Structures are given as C-alpha cells and as structure tokens.
Amino acid sequence: MWAVLTVVVVFEFTVGGTLSKCLNRGSATLLAGALGVGAEHIARLCGEKGEPVVLGLFVFILAATSTFMRFFPNVKKRYEYGMLIFILTFTLVAVSGARVTHILQMAHQRLSTILIGGATCIAISIFICPVWAGQDLHNLVAANIENLAVFFQGFGVEFCSCPGEECSTVSSKDDKDCRSYLQSYKKILNSKANEESLVASEFQPTITKMSTESGKALQELASAVKNMTFPLSTVEIHIRNSKDAASDLRSILENPSFPSKNMDLQEIMPVLVVAYVLTDIINCVEKLSVHVHELGKKAGFRYIKVTN
C-alpha cells in the first residue's frame, strides 16, 4: 500500500519534479521515522500511564514546529511537501508504536515499500520518455522578461496620456495599445491598480524616459537569455540613460521651488510614488543585467559581433 501511495503522490510530469518530490519524501521519511522510534522509546520509559502523555507532547511540539516552519517563504517553496510528509510519518510511527510491539520491524517495512515506490518513479521518469523542464524554464524566464519590457516601454506614455477615465476617450488604436501594455503587465504581476491622477507636465519627460529606457534594457536582456547570447553594449547605454533620467527627476524634487503654489499635492502624490517605484526598478534592471552576464559566463553564451 505504501509503495502505491508513494507512486501516486511523487510522480510528476518532469524528471526534476519527480526527483525533488522523491528526495523530499525519502529524507522526511527517514528523519521522521528515526525521531518517531526515539520518541516511542523515551515514552515507554515513563511507564504505562505516562507513555500516552509523553507521545502526545512529542507529537504536538514537532507537528506545531513543522507547521510553523512551512510558512517561511524559502521553506514553503522548496520543502513544503517534505515538511508535510515529516508530520504525517512522525505521527503515524509514534502513535502506531504505542499499539505495535515490533516497532522497528514496522518502520523497516514501511520505509522499504516507500523506497521501492520512489525508485520506480525515478526509473520511469528518467528512462521512459523523460521530460526535462530546462528548456521550458528557459523560455518562461525569457518570456517574462520580455513581457515586462513591453509593459515598461509603453507605461510612461500611457501613464501620462490616458490615466483613469481619459482612457475611454482616446482612439481605438491607442486603446488597443494601452490594453496591450496592461495585459503584458498582468502576465507577470496580476496587478489591478489603476492610476487616476494627472501627471504634472514637468514630470512627463523624465518618467517616460525612465520607463522606456528600462523597457529597452529588459528587451535586450530577454533577447540575450532567449538566444543564449551575451547582452549587447546597448543594455548599459539604456540603463545609464534611465539612471540619468532618475537623477534629473531627483533634481526637480530637490529644487527649493518645488512644489509650486498652483500644484495640488493630491494630484502629484501618485506621480511621486511611480517615480520612486521606477527608481527601484532601474536598480533591479541593473542587477538583472549583472546576473545575466554571470549566467552567460557559466552557461557558455555566445558573443555577437556588431557590424556597422
């Protein structure tokens, strides 16, 4: 029964997914089984009346600790399945040990059947029509970066020209473009935010430049990842242009005459928030460029000769 259950829960479409679940289940079963046997041995030393109390205390402490650890992002992303198996296995071994005389034999039998099921899944995944997720992951990363690039290239213009209800008054072509940019954005972030304030005229060039230059840099990085080539030198130019625009915007904000008397703070506050977010995005794009170069060195990306 345990072998069949193992095959059902750990078998995945890709080889990597199957290996990950098998390793999680195997390590969690070994650790939980050993702790369960140890907890049962300690509980028996407390006598017939104290054994259920000690076992209940052990189960509560370990189950509560494991459940709490599952909420940590890093643990949840990689080891959530293993933590779940750990809780179930420890509880089964500890509680069953109170009613079974030969607990070591029971633990050995269950572990053997689980290993048989896991080995069967791994063998089938690797040797019978294996599916590796490397290419899919590669294409997905490139597509996500490209979608972000499409959004940022149009965000500055759309934010300045058709905020809020004014989007309904623009031409059909502009409306399609606006929806296209927002659709690319939703593919990554699934955001539902909608800016409703007008942008002050002095912010339009800087915000537009910050957004479009970041989008162009992301477009180059997406192409580099997709084609497995080192990014062109134009990426650094776009990043530098976006940083220059951010510096210009910072100079405007640090000007003693800002804000002027005819400006409404409620109208310019969304613009300031967008400018702050774009500044962080520029830093992230710069870090992404560094990581893509490091990836290219490790993965053996090709250099492209630029012909004039």
TrEMBL record:
Protein name, entry field: Aluminum-activated malate transporter 8
Annotated keywords: Ion channel, Ion transport, Membrane, Signal, Transmembrane, Transmembrane helix, Transport
Family stated for the protein in its record: Belongs to the aromatic acid exporter (TC 2.A.85) family.
Spans through the membrane: 53-73, 79-101, 113-133
Protein's cellular compartments: Membrane
Record membrane topology: Multi-pass membrane protein
Main location: membrane
GO cellular component, one term: membrane
Secretion signal span: 1-20
Taxonomic source organism: Sesamum latifolium
Keyword Membrane in annotation: yes
Gene Ontology biological process terms, A to Z: malate transport; monoatomic ion transmembrane transport
